[in-house]
Automatic annotation (TrEMBL):
Residues 92-296 form the Prolyl 4-hydroxylase alpha subunit domain. Keywords: Dioxygenase, Iron, Metal-binding, Oxidoreductase, Vitamin C. This is Prolyl 4-hydroxylase alpha subunit domain-containing protein. Its cofactor is L-ascorbate. One of its GO terms (molecular function) is procollagen-proline 4-dioxygenase activity. GO terms for cellular component: endoplasmic reticulum. It comes from Adineta ricciae.
Amino acid sequence: MRYIHILIVVGVILNLYQCRYSILQLSDTSLNIFIGLLTDLHHYIQQLINSSSKVIVTCNTANNIYHNYNLSEYENKCPEHRYDVQIISRRPLIIYIENFLTSNEIQYLIQLANPFFENSTVANYDGSRTLDESFRLSSTTYLQRAGTPIIKCIEKRFAKFQGNINPLQIEPLQVVKYQSNQFFHPHFDWFYNGSHLDNGGQRITTFFTYLFANCTNGETEFIEIKYNQTLHERFCKILICDDVAEQYGLRFRPIPGNSIFWFNVDENNNNDELTLHAGRPPSENGFKIGLNTWTRHSIFHN
Protein backbone atom coordinates (compact mmCIF):
# COMPACT_ATOMS: atom_id res chain seq x y z
CA MET A 1 0.00 0.00 0.00
CA ARG A 2 2.81 2.42 0.84
CA TYR A 3 4.38 1.73 -2.54
CA ILE A 4 1.11 2.76 -4.20
CA HIS A 5 1.16 5.98 -2.17
CA ILE A 6 4.69 6.72 -3.35
CA LEU A 7 3.75 6.18 -7.00
CA ILE A 8 0.77 8.50 -6.58
CA VAL A 9 2.94 11.22 -5.05
CA VAL A 10 5.56 10.95 -7.79
CA GLY A 11 2.81 11.15 -10.39
CA VAL A 12 1.43 14.26 -8.72
CA ILE A 13 4.86 15.90 -8.71
CA LEU A 14 5.45 15.28 -12.41
CA ASN A 15 1.92 16.14 -13.48
CA LEU A 16 2.01 19.42 -11.54
CA TYR A 17 5.38 20.28 -13.03
CA GLN A 18 4.23 19.47 -16.56
CA CYS A 19 1.08 21.58 -16.08
CA ARG A 20 2.90 24.48 -14.44
CA TYR A 21 2.32 26.84 -17.38
CA SER A 22 -1.44 26.89 -16.87
CA ILE A 23 -1.73 26.58 -13.09
CA LEU A 24 1.00 28.88 -11.86
CA GLN A 25 0.50 32.02 -13.97
CA LEU A 26 4.29 31.99 -14.49
CA SER A 27 4.96 34.42 -11.63
CA ASP A 28 7.73 34.21 -9.02
CA THR A 29 5.13 33.99 -6.27
CA SER A 30 3.41 31.08 -7.96
CA LEU A 31 6.72 29.37 -8.58
CA ASN A 32 7.60 29.65 -4.89
CA ILE A 33 4.24 28.12 -3.98
CA PHE A 34 4.89 25.27 -6.39
CA ILE A 35 8.39 24.71 -5.02
CA GLY A 36 6.97 24.61 -1.52
CA LEU A 37 4.48 21.97 -2.63
CA LEU A 38 7.28 19.90 -4.13
CA THR A 39 9.17 20.15 -0.86
CA ASP A 40 6.13 19.02 1.14
CA LEU A 41 5.63 16.09 -1.21
CA HIS A 42 9.30 15.21 -0.92
CA HIS A 43 9.04 15.15 2.89
CA TYR A 44 5.97 12.93 2.62
CA ILE A 45 7.84 10.51 0.39
CA GLN A 46 10.71 10.38 2.86
CA GLN A 47 8.30 9.65 5.73
CA LEU A 48 6.87 6.74 3.78
CA ILE A 49 10.35 5.46 3.01
CA ASN A 50 11.59 5.76 6.59
CA SER A 51 8.52 4.06 8.03
CA SER A 52 8.68 1.02 5.77
CA SER A 53 12.21 -0.26 5.29
CA LYS A 54 10.83 -3.54 3.95
CA VAL A 55 9.35 -1.73 0.98
CA ILE A 56 12.10 0.74 0.10
CA VAL A 57 15.73 -0.32 0.30
CA THR A 58 18.72 1.94 -0.32
CA CYS A 59 21.13 0.49 -2.84
CA ASN A 60 24.59 1.73 -3.81
CA THR A 61 25.97 -0.95 -6.12
CA ALA A 62 24.70 -3.34 -8.73
CA ASN A 63 24.84 -6.15 -6.17
CA ASN A 64 22.46 -4.22 -3.93
CA ILE A 65 19.65 -3.92 -6.47
CA TYR A 66 17.11 -5.61 -4.31
CA HIS A 67 14.32 -6.54 -6.67
CA ASN A 68 14.42 -8.63 -9.81
CA TYR A 69 11.94 -10.24 -12.18
CA ASN A 70 11.88 -13.13 -14.59
CA LEU A 71 12.32 -11.46 -17.98
CA SER A 72 10.23 -14.14 -19.69
CA GLU A 73 7.17 -12.76 -17.88
CA TYR A 74 7.44 -9.31 -19.52
CA GLU A 75 5.68 -10.58 -22.64
CA ASN A 76 2.48 -11.04 -20.65
CA LYS A 77 2.69 -8.20 -18.14
CA CYS A 78 5.13 -5.47 -17.14
CA PRO A 79 6.18 -5.77 -13.49
CA GLU A 80 4.95 -3.28 -10.91
CA HIS A 81 8.42 -2.05 -10.12
CA ARG A 82 9.38 -0.27 -6.89
CA TYR A 83 11.99 2.45 -6.51
CA ASP A 84 13.10 5.28 -4.22
CA VAL A 85 13.03 8.96 -5.22
CA GLN A 86 14.77 12.05 -3.87
CA ILE A 87 14.41 15.65 -5.01
CA ILE A 88 17.97 16.95 -5.41
CA SER A 89 17.30 20.35 -6.96
CA ARG A 90 14.20 22.50 -7.17
CA ARG A 91 15.31 24.71 -10.04
CA PRO A 92 15.95 23.06 -12.35
CA LEU A 93 13.93 20.12 -11.10
CA ILE A 94 16.29 17.16 -10.65
CA ILE A 95 14.98 13.93 -9.17
CA TYR A 96 17.24 11.03 -8.26
CA ILE A 97 15.72 7.57 -8.64
CA GLU A 98 17.28 4.60 -6.88
CA ASN A 99 16.74 1.09 -8.22
CA PHE A 100 14.95 2.31 -11.34
CA LEU A 101 16.20 -0.67 -13.37
CA THR A 102 16.77 -4.19 -12.08
CA SER A 103 19.97 -6.19 -12.51
CA ASN A 104 18.26 -8.56 -14.98
CA GLU A 105 17.06 -5.61 -17.06
CA ILE A 106 20.53 -4.06 -16.98
CA GLN A 107 22.22 -7.27 -18.08
CA TYR A 108 19.69 -7.66 -20.87
CA LEU A 109 20.18 -4.10 -22.19
CA ILE A 110 23.97 -4.41 -22.17
CA GLN A 111 23.91 -7.75 -23.99
CA LEU A 112 21.49 -6.33 -26.54
CA ALA A 113 23.63 -3.25 -27.16
CA ASN A 114 27.13 -4.74 -27.12
CA PRO A 115 27.40 -5.87 -30.77
CA PHE A 116 26.25 -2.51 -32.14
CA PHE A 117 28.30 0.22 -30.44
CA GLU A 118 29.65 2.91 -32.77
CA ASN A 119 31.58 6.12 -32.20
CA SER A 120 29.34 8.76 -30.62
CA THR A 121 28.33 11.82 -32.62
CA VAL A 122 27.18 15.33 -31.75
CA ALA A 123 24.16 17.19 -33.12
CA ASN A 124 24.62 20.07 -35.55
CA TYR A 125 22.26 22.99 -36.00
CA ASP A 126 21.20 21.82 -39.48
CA GLY A 127 19.94 18.50 -38.14
CA SER A 128 22.96 16.46 -39.11
CA ARG A 129 25.28 14.63 -36.75
CA THR A 130 29.08 14.52 -36.93
CA LEU A 131 32.03 13.05 -35.07
CA ASP A 132 33.84 15.48 -32.77
CA GLU A 133 36.16 13.49 -30.56
CA SER A 134 37.56 16.65 -28.98
CA PHE A 135 34.10 17.28 -27.49
CA ARG A 136 32.50 13.85 -27.15
CA LEU A 137 34.48 10.64 -27.01
CA SER A 138 32.46 7.50 -26.32
CA SER A 139 30.46 4.86 -28.17
CA THR A 140 26.69 4.58 -28.50
CA THR A 141 23.90 2.54 -29.98
CA TYR A 142 20.12 2.90 -30.13
CA LEU A 143 17.60 0.24 -29.17
CA GLN A 144 14.60 -0.21 -31.40
CA ARG A 145 11.53 1.34 -29.82
CA ALA A 146 9.32 -1.39 -28.34
CA GLY A 147 11.66 -3.81 -30.10
CA THR A 148 11.15 -6.48 -27.45
CA PRO A 149 8.68 -6.91 -24.58
CA ILE A 150 11.44 -5.98 -22.13
CA ILE A 151 12.30 -2.74 -23.90
CA LYS A 152 8.62 -1.93 -24.17
CA CYS A 153 8.13 -2.38 -20.41
CA ILE A 154 11.16 -0.23 -19.63
CA GLU A 155 9.87 2.51 -21.94
CA LYS A 156 6.50 2.33 -20.20
CA ARG A 157 8.23 2.75 -16.84
CA PHE A 158 9.91 5.94 -18.06
CA ALA A 159 6.57 7.17 -19.38
CA LYS A 160 4.69 6.26 -16.19
CA PHE A 161 7.17 8.16 -14.04
CA GLN A 162 6.33 11.27 -16.05
CA GLY A 163 2.62 11.02 -15.39
CA ASN A 164 1.71 8.29 -17.87
CA ILE A 165 2.69 10.27 -20.94
CA ASN A 166 2.48 8.67 -24.36
CA PRO A 167 5.55 6.38 -24.68
CA LEU A 168 5.80 7.52 -28.31
CA GLN A 169 7.09 10.86 -27.00
CA ILE A 170 10.23 9.02 -25.88
CA GLU A 171 13.09 8.74 -28.35
CA PRO A 172 14.59 5.29 -28.94
CA LEU A 173 16.69 4.43 -25.89
CA GLN A 174 20.39 5.20 -26.33
CA VAL A 175 23.04 3.06 -24.63
CA VAL A 176 26.38 4.86 -24.18
CA LYS A 177 29.75 3.42 -23.14
CA TYR A 178 32.71 5.36 -21.75
CA GLN A 179 36.14 3.77 -21.46
CA SER A 180 38.97 5.00 -19.23
CA ASN A 181 39.78 8.38 -20.79
CA GLN A 182 36.50 9.02 -22.62
CA PHE A 183 34.18 11.90 -21.86
CA PHE A 184 31.37 14.19 -22.93
CA HIS A 185 32.31 17.81 -22.30
CA PRO A 186 29.69 20.24 -20.85
CA HIS A 187 26.60 20.28 -23.04
CA PHE A 188 22.82 20.66 -23.08
CA ASP A 189 20.33 17.97 -24.05
CA TRP A 190 17.88 20.56 -25.40
CA PHE A 191 18.21 21.77 -28.97
CA TYR A 192 18.66 25.27 -30.27
CA ASN A 193 16.07 26.28 -32.85
CA GLY A 194 16.75 24.10 -35.84
CA SER A 195 15.62 21.06 -37.77
CA HIS A 196 16.12 18.80 -34.73
CA LEU A 197 12.86 20.28 -33.44
CA ASP A 198 10.88 19.26 -36.52
CA ASN A 199 10.32 15.75 -35.19
CA GLY A 200 8.59 15.80 -31.80
CA GLY A 201 9.64 19.27 -30.74
CA GLN A 202 11.99 20.03 -27.86
CA ARG A 203 13.55 17.50 -25.52
CA ILE A 204 11.52 18.30 -22.42
CA THR A 205 13.12 15.81 -20.02
CA THR A 206 16.12 13.53 -19.66
CA PHE A 207 16.81 10.37 -17.69
CA PHE A 208 20.41 9.22 -17.40
CA THR A 209 20.47 5.72 -15.93
CA TYR A 210 23.67 3.95 -14.93
CA LEU A 211 23.92 0.38 -16.20
CA PHE A 212 27.47 -0.55 -15.27
CA ALA A 213 30.38 1.18 -13.53
CA ASN A 214 33.87 -0.18 -12.95
CA CYS A 215 35.62 3.06 -12.12
CA THR A 216 36.70 5.47 -9.41
CA ASN A 217 35.41 8.54 -11.22
CA GLY A 218 33.01 8.71 -14.17
CA GLU A 219 30.56 11.02 -12.46
CA THR A 220 27.85 13.11 -14.15
CA GLU A 221 28.38 16.77 -13.26
CA PHE A 222 25.85 19.60 -13.44
CA ILE A 223 28.22 22.50 -13.99
CA GLU A 224 25.94 25.42 -13.08
CA ILE A 225 24.43 23.89 -9.92
CA LYS A 226 27.21 24.39 -7.40
CA TYR A 227 27.70 22.03 -4.50
CA ASN A 228 26.61 23.56 -1.21
CA GLN A 229 27.52 21.62 1.92
CA THR A 230 24.50 22.83 3.87
CA LEU A 231 22.09 21.79 1.13
CA HIS A 232 23.77 18.73 -0.28
CA GLU A 233 25.76 16.89 2.38
CA ARG A 234 22.75 14.66 3.13
CA PHE A 235 23.07 13.31 -0.41
CA CYS A 236 26.72 12.24 -0.08
CA LYS A 237 25.92 8.59 -0.79
CA ILE A 238 25.00 9.63 -4.34
CA LEU A 239 27.02 12.88 -4.73
CA ILE A 240 30.77 13.48 -4.54
CA CYS A 241 31.31 15.37 -1.26
CA ASP A 242 35.11 15.61 -1.08
CA ASP A 243 37.25 18.49 0.19
CA VAL A 244 37.04 20.33 -3.15
CA ALA A 245 33.34 19.68 -3.79
CA GLU A 246 32.38 23.36 -3.49
CA GLN A 247 34.65 24.16 -6.44
CA TYR A 248 32.47 22.02 -8.69
CA GLY A 249 28.90 21.54 -9.71
CA LEU A 250 26.85 18.64 -8.40
CA ARG A 251 28.70 15.44 -9.27
CA PHE A 252 26.61 12.27 -9.25
CA ARG A 253 28.33 8.99 -8.52
CA PRO A 254 27.88 6.28 -11.20
CA ILE A 255 25.74 3.77 -9.27
CA PRO A 256 24.25 1.01 -11.46
CA GLY A 257 20.48 0.77 -11.50
CA ASN A 258 20.00 4.38 -10.45
CA SER A 259 18.77 7.23 -12.63
CA ILE A 260 19.02 11.02 -12.70
CA PHE A 261 15.88 12.70 -14.06
CA TRP A 262 15.66 16.38 -14.95
CA PHE A 263 13.65 18.91 -16.94
CA ASN A 264 15.53 20.57 -19.80
CA VAL A 265 13.17 23.57 -19.95
CA ASP A 266 12.30 26.12 -17.29
CA GLU A 267 8.94 27.29 -15.96
CA ASN A 268 8.49 29.51 -19.03
CA ASN A 269 9.16 26.59 -21.39
CA ASN A 270 12.50 28.12 -22.36
CA ASN A 271 15.68 26.11 -22.74
CA ASP A 272 17.21 25.93 -19.26
CA GLU A 273 20.92 26.77 -19.22
CA LEU A 274 21.18 25.54 -15.64
CA THR A 275 20.99 22.00 -17.04
CA LEU A 276 24.51 22.23 -18.47
CA HIS A 277 26.13 18.89 -17.63
CA ALA A 278 29.09 16.70 -18.49
CA GLY A 279 30.09 13.05 -18.48
CA ARG A 280 33.45 12.77 -16.74
CA PRO A 281 36.09 10.14 -17.64
CA PRO A 282 35.77 6.89 -15.66
CA SER A 283 39.49 6.67 -14.66
CA GLU A 284 42.45 4.62 -15.81
CA ASN A 285 41.42 1.06 -16.75
CA GLY A 286 37.80 1.83 -15.82
CA PHE A 287 34.64 2.13 -17.85
CA LYS A 288 30.95 2.79 -17.43
CA ILE A 289 27.78 2.17 -19.41
CA GLY A 290 24.69 4.35 -19.22
CA LEU A 291 21.25 4.73 -20.75
CA ASN A 292 20.01 8.04 -22.17
CA THR A 293 16.23 8.48 -22.28
CA TRP A 294 14.91 11.69 -23.84
CA THR A 295 11.26 12.75 -23.91
CA ARG A 296 9.97 15.12 -26.58
CA HIS A 297 7.16 17.66 -26.37
CA SER A 298 5.04 15.55 -28.71
CA ILE A 299 5.24 12.21 -30.52
CA PHE A 300 8.69 11.41 -31.89
CA HIS A 301 8.67 9.47 -35.18
CA ASN A 302 11.51 7.06 -35.91
